[in-house]
């Protein structure tokens, strides 16, 4: 059967001709809550997935990211893309996949994930990139030419002679006399003798600091074995994660450095994740020093950088100039191409979990990225997370251990001091035990240094008896109950169990059962009173608001201009001070008294890490832990530096109560300035969820959060527990959308939550 010719169309073509299949770009439009629209790709525009584009939207223009290229409709109804922003995609295919995966897992908008991947200054091209005018000689003028120019415009001739003499590649306008030289240079450029261009001046966030090159150390046997296993995996493109469990001071950082150097030498990229940046200036410095001979090879990414700095570092990685990227959590999205190795240092650290939307876990996404890119990944810690330990025990991760300190020093001797039997001396306000006071006095006398840690986490009031140490816990979860003032009840935040507040300690009958906390400032006052001669410095969130404050204090401490360093969690990590012979922990329990399934794990990690700060020099170290619950497993295992023993014990408990890593917990929080709206919205959600969630999902009653009011908003929450996180995200987000709570109520869902406040 023969077909008649198709009818001609308005533009003279034929409706059924071959080119009628149009290419369309599926664009995620910025700032519109994950609105996705298709646009026609104009001929000749080389658009790829991950490109940033300018698009028309109703009567205005806006920007977006290309999610995919699809076949367009056969008519010409689609509006065309207006412009491609930048030549290449800003997001690689792997990072696009990662963004889409994470958005679905953590129930977050894809656009929010993409905002993590492409930092604001890059996506908005708002970078105030510092440029300077730069001139270069294009050809040498003949003597004749030069004489002619000299006769008419002596200044131009002078510039030419200057450039001919200086052997360099060219000069900044500023070195030719600045603005007055601009007009003559322009004229010379028009004559074709010079080029005049804007040249980017790279801003290095570590600009003022210089780093002396360091040489690789001779590895000990443990380190060599760890390095061999990492490189073997790398050569085989094996992305089964390697869990490097090495005691504090075992020389993990040296292993990272040498692995990174080898991978980089083969032209591959390296990504190094560290806990929140301000905490580890030392680690950064060690990487900068090791690669000091390859300037620009190491890029640093962190949130405290200026827009310009972030723009520069990001582009330096994207262009492939920097081959090693270091940074906290969000650096996992660094545009390192041809990625060979990812290192997650202190992989147990809570700062890898983002506490606002998108609430992703940096370590977990790093593991996924490694698998997607075929890169090797190393998770390192002295006190790995129970998630990683369980993965190693189940064979999903490969465990590599380093059980000795690199310098063969002994781990410090740790004493647990029972504060219940301490005489209640008014002068020290129950803050300093006699034992710790004497130990401090002795170090000061000998000219040695000490670190004092105040474990302050949360504000939730658990009830602990200062006389016997008893903590009131939930019958179902074995977690501390939290005191709620308005109703005068003790409540379990995981399962909702309620109990009346005992008038006196159920264990010993003491009436002092409400635990009073104290802060670093109060401790500082007491210390100053005890040791008027000592140089004492306090490090806490208040002090470190100032940029570089922590770095400066640590430098002073290293130079022994400080005798006693007093601080919160932020001084417990990654620091290496040979002069420290004493570490005191003032109140080991406070971290245990929070309604958080990971409370014991965190306390154990904190105590073990901080104890690892003592005795890194010639003199053996001593650690004194003050506590009201000396029998607590977290404290006893930390005393023996026994990570395996702690893991056995704690995994047993977690399994019994079906807590992570044997399940996934999510926190659903509703906030509002009007309390009744918050509680009503959560009650409604709760009721609807009961009807739709699969039976394997357990849900607590809706309750005021332990942090019941913050920033003027009342907070209500409930906790969901599921064998698989996937059971939660879709169902709960659908109900949140259905509720459409309006502007005065904010609903958030935190999958794999680490914060139960
Ligand atoms: P970790 O990261 O495991 O806590 P570090 O990398 O900080 O340990 O190493 C602890 C100390 O041991 C550092 O001062 C480091 O310079 C030193 N060190 C590491 N490896 C070696 C080695 N092979 N020989 C000698 N000293 C080493
Ligand atoms: Zn008691
Ligand atoms: Zn409970």
Key terms for this structure?
7-stranded parallel beta sheet, GIY-YIG endonuclease, 5 domains, binds zinc ion, alpha/beta, binds adenosine-5'-diphosphate, 6-stranded parallel beta sheet, Rossmann fold, 21% strand, 757 residues
Molecular structure report:
This protein is of the alpha/beta class and 757 residues long. It has five domains: 1-90, GIY-YIG endonuclease; 130-201; 221-408, 3-Layer(aba) Sandwich (Rossmann fold), CATH 3.40.50; 413-459 and 518-649, Rossmann fold (3-Layer(aba) Sandwich); 664-751, Alpha-Beta Plaits, CATH 3.30.70.600. The strands form six sheets. A seven-stranded parallel beta sheet has the order 11-12-10-13-14-9-15, sandwiched between helices. A six-stranded parallel beta sheet has the order 16-24-23-17-22-21, sandwiched between helices. Helix 15 (549-558) links the parallel strand 21 (536-539) and strand 22 (564-567). Helix 4 (143-152) runs antiparallel to helix 5 (154-165). The protein is globular and about 105 Å long. It starts with 22 loop residues before the first strand and ends in a 6-residue tail after the last strand. The relative contact order is 0.08. Mean pLDDT is 84; it is low at 1-20. The protein binds adenosine-5'-diphosphate (ADP) and zinc ion (2 copies). One zinc ion (ZN) binds next to loops.
Architecture blueprint of SSEs:
Elements lengths: L22 E7 L6 E5 L11 E6 L2 E12 L11 E3 L7 H13 L4 H8 L2 H4 L7 E7 L5 H10 L1 H12 L5 E2 L9 H9 L3 E7 L20 H15 L6 E5 L5 H14 L3 E5 L7 H10 L7 E3 L6 H12 L5 E4 L11 E6 L17 H12 L2 E6 L4 H8 L4 E5 L10 E6 L15 H13 L2 E5 L28 E3 L4 E3 L6 E3 L19 H11 L5 E4 L9 H10 L5 E4 L12 E6 L13 H13 L10 E6 L5 H7 L3 H14 L7 E9 L2 H18 L5 E2 L3 E8 L2 E10 L3 H14 L5 E7 L6
Parallel strand pairs: 9-14, 9-15, 10-12, 10-13, 11-12, 13-14, 16-24, 17-22, 17-23, 21-22, 23-24
Antiparallel strand pairs: 1-2, 1-4, 3-4, 3-5, 6-7, 6-8, 18-19, 19-20, 25-28, 25-29, 26-28, 27-28
Helix pairs in contact: 1-2, 1-11, 4-5, 7-8, 16-17, 17-18, 19-20
The structure holds adenosine-5'-diphosphate and zinc ion (2 copies).
One zinc ion binds next to loops.
